Amino acid sequence: MKHRSYFCLACICILMLLQGCGQPGDSAQAVINEAPAAAQPASAETAVPSETAAPTPVPTVTQPQSVTLLFAGDVMAHQKQIDCHKFGSMYDFTDDYKYISGIISAADIAVANLETPMTGEPPYTGYPNFNAPDSLADALSLAGFDILAAANNHARDQLDEGIMQTNATLVAKGFTVIGTAAQDGGAKYALVEKNGINIGFVNFTALSNRGYKDTTEPILNCLQRGGGCDEGYTAMEGEIRALREQGAEFIVAFVHWGSEYQLENSAAQKDMAQRIADSGADLIIGAHPHVLQNVAEYASPVTGRETLIYYSLGNFVSNQPYSYGPGRGHCETGALALVKLIRADNGSVGIDSAGYLTTYVLKPNIVKEYTEDGEVHEKSTRAYYIVPAAAAEADPSSYEGAEGTLFRHIEIAADNGRKIIGESGDGLTFFDFQEYTGWPWEYVY
């Protein structure tokens, strides 16, 4: 009886488990045949972050420090220019630069040779003793120039007082002036910091038309002193040394030298260039011949550096016509020297690339409107438009008056630049040198 009771009890328990362990209607078979529920995304509270690899850092490309330099040749103010730019009681030279100012303004530092004093008082005169209205400086400022080289053979046309007054006027208008001083003891050189690079500028003339007196020495840099240039070279070496001591990493020497209307440098210029480079100049810019001259290079055994030399940039603007005898076909041709400096990996500063842009002084007859005392007036006059020669050659319709004989002269100017500067530049080995037809560089730093 005992064994049977255990068996019955077991059967009852199994039956209870089969009938009472689930909810009504549920069965094991139903659960197995039910389609699995779609997976649901975990909530932010319950999500467990998965381990992923850290993103690969993107390397930062740092542009090297760089500075772009632009140099123009002789800014003249002949009597015809002064007369053509007189409108009522005012003088306005701004239109001269309307076709070239975009290029000038694009440079980090733009420099020109100003070959006229400015006393601030009439009579305003041209050759042989220049004296231009102060508004010429305003036009140069609007065009984009930063530095004016004032040491040239016409600097003393209005004697020592003219040198000092010109310097003071230019400084008051915001220019950095090199080659002259407004007073005894004033610096005649400049140290300019741009984009983290320190550049030194010196300016000397080889001669002075109206003499060079003891009173002139403190306010005008001239190489020729007395019977020779030794004292002048010593003064230049002192300025370059002072600039290096003040932190200059690159030295520019703007020199007024050479023989007028000669299309190639003289032996004397070559000797001068080598001595200036041996004194520490890294770039030499020449003016005075009123025509273009060749470019050259020189490896200094003294400094261990290579120097680029532009012997003459010609006239930037003048009244010397195409037919002018000594320089026939060349006096309306000029060039801009364009130079890009860069800081190398070792920290030194040098020339990365350089070249030239040929310019032409386009002189059509025009009618100019101006306003004075509330009334509009007209004047028939001559323009002195400085145009980029290659660009005007390619698209003359964009330049007022670039037609007929004047267009032919533009073509000749462009050819002058290629034959004189371009062909000599092809022979350079230390520098990447080329012709530019417009501004060649984007702003990097």
Question: Any overview of this molecule?
Answer:
26% of the residues lie in helices and 25% in strands. The longest helix has 22 residues, at 404-425. The strands form 4 sheets. Strands 1, 4, 5, 6, 13, 14, 15, 18 and 19 form a 9-stranded mixed beta sheet that branches. A 6-stranded mixed beta sheet has the order 7-8-9-10-12-11. Strands 2-3 form a two-stranded antiparallel ribbon. The protein is α/β, with parallel strands linked by helices and 445 residues long.
What would you report as the Rg, rounded to the nearest angstrom? 38 Å
Helix content range: 25-40%
| Structural domain count | 1
Q: Helix/strand-derived class?
A: alpha/beta
Summed up:
Helix content is 26%, strand content 25%.
Notable traits:
10 helices, single chain, Purple Acid Phosphatase, chain A, domain 2, six-stranded mixed β-sheet, globular, alpha/beta
